[in-house]
Amino acid sequence: MSSTSNPMLKLIAEAGPICGCCDLEDGAFCAGLSDDGLRGLKAIRGNLRVDAQHTVFREGDPADSAYAVVTGTVKLSKLLSDGRRQVVGFLFPGDFFGFALGGTYAVSAEAVTPTALCRFSESRLEALLDRTPELERRLLRRMVMELSFAQEQMLLLGRMTAREKLAHFLLMLSRRAEARGDPQSPVAVPMSRLDMADYLGLTIETVSRTLTAMKKDGLIALPTSALVDLVNRDALRRIADGQAG
Amino acid sequence: MSSTSNPMLKLIAEAGPICGCCDLEDGAFCAGLSDDGLRGLKAIRGNLRVDAQHTVFREGDPADSAYAVVTGTVKLSKLLSDGRRQVVGFLFPGDFFGFALGGTYAVSAEAVTPTALCRFSESRLEALLDRTPELERRLLRRMVMELSFAQEQMLLLGRMTAREKLAHFLLMLSRRAEARGDPQSPVAVPMSRLDMADYLGLTIETVSRTLTAMKKDGLIALPTSALVDLVNRDALRRIADGQAG
DNA sequence: CGGTCGGTTGAAAACAATCAACTTCTGTGG
DNA sequence: CCACAGAAGTTGATTGTTTTCAACCGACCG
């Protein structure tokens, strides 16, 4: 973040209107903004580091800040009073979250890995939106995409089998890793089996068993429990799309 | 809609900045807009009637219009290639849908009952948003709420039992009926058992059986299959919140 | 009056959950 | 550096909720 020998920093300087607070480019929430929009964002930006498993904010808290992931992974989740949990999303570098327009947070946010965040004060962000139509339109577009992603997740949760859920999940991780410039085939799975289970509406045992079965079928390989090799991507895609058992 | 003896029309005239295209007030997408914002919306508004079970648009179609429900009920759904279906939302008078910012529709929209809609050309709406920050902010706020609702639905689909799902669903229908000024206790259930099942991630048989069981337990009464009396609302709420079996 | 459609009920099957044991990995302290 | 403890993950046996397959009921309509 401060070493001048970091090759990324040079790239950022050359690329022009990039935030400069992080190494992210095209995928990021702030990427591609005009100089003006970036200036505004930078002016209200704060930084934050969160240890693995620590909470950024809790469901029901007054929503006083929005965040962007710089490095690490964050999960958003909701709880039932008896402890049942649903993870409603995983966030990777470039992703934006916690935007509630002055209400309360609808979900809790916790770091999955050690994480660096950009923090934007809600009130200042809202004021900035008043002044920066470009930014507001971008946020609107982002919310449209988020909603569409949530609808796809509903299809997964309501209508897919365990195997289809896992295939879909692994391909999603791979696609997003690729978008950030990370390797897409031995794909990193930074979250625990419990987090995966709570995201897919399954139990840890079913996640584990299903992965083992997929390995046996030559669909994937598991070099470590946090690394999945997508051996037969086409077959995975067919399964994820509900065209095969 | 045109009779001068309709008491609603007088109310609308008195209330000032109400669209006038429909009988809706506070809950509506356009309610509470400034005269200016309303003028803009009215200028790009078209009307549309859709018969029950007919399609407004299909998943994957280019998104050339957004819509608001005036009367009737609309469902949004996604399909898997083998026919499995997930209903991702029901829309009632005042609700806004089909807003995709120039992309393609992520879901299909079908009328559940005979339905009247306001139609807004996507390109004109986007141009209007450029000119009307008030409207864009409202839309942004709406998307935030929609997303939060979608996240709650994920919790339901991933982690609730059939009985909890039904309790939650009936209370949601009741709450929204009340918000529109409709009776909240013998609550109207305009959609078929299949639509309910596809919304809750269940089968029609499970929906039917669960309703029967809830009737037997004195939680609800079923005057007709499309009308549900919420006999014991508190118990329903406890079940919906996951505090009781 | 027969036919179809939507809804309900019954019996059997299946997928995933639960309960439980065991293995592997990780980190810590001797 | 090794030994141990705890956490995370895997595997096995069994249970159970929901699905599937099937029959039946009642309403609406030609």
Describe the structure.
Chain A has 8 helices and 11 strands. Chain A has 245 residues and is of the alpha+beta class. Residues 1-18 of chain A have low confidence and may be disordered. Chain A binds chain B through residues 76, 78, 80-82, 84-86, 88, 99-101, 103, 106-107, 129-130, 133, 136-137, 139-141, 143-144, 146-148, 150-155, 157-160, 198, 200-201, 241-243, and chain B through 76, 78, 80-82, 84-86, 88, 99-101, 103, 106-107, 129-130, 133, 136-137, 139-141, 143-144, 146-148, 150-155, 157-160, 198, 200-201, 241-243. The structure holds a DNA duplex (30 and 30 nucleotides).
Descriptive keywords:
21% strand, DNA-binding, 42% helix, alpha+beta, 4-stranded antiparallel beta sheet, 245 residues, 8 helices, homodimer
Please give a quick description of this structure.
By secondary structure, the first copy, chain A, is α+β, with helices and mostly antiparallel strands. Chain A contains 8 helices and 11 strands. The first copy, chain A, has a 4-stranded antiparallel sheet. The first copy, chain A, has a 4-stranded antiparallel sheet with strand order 2-7-4-5.
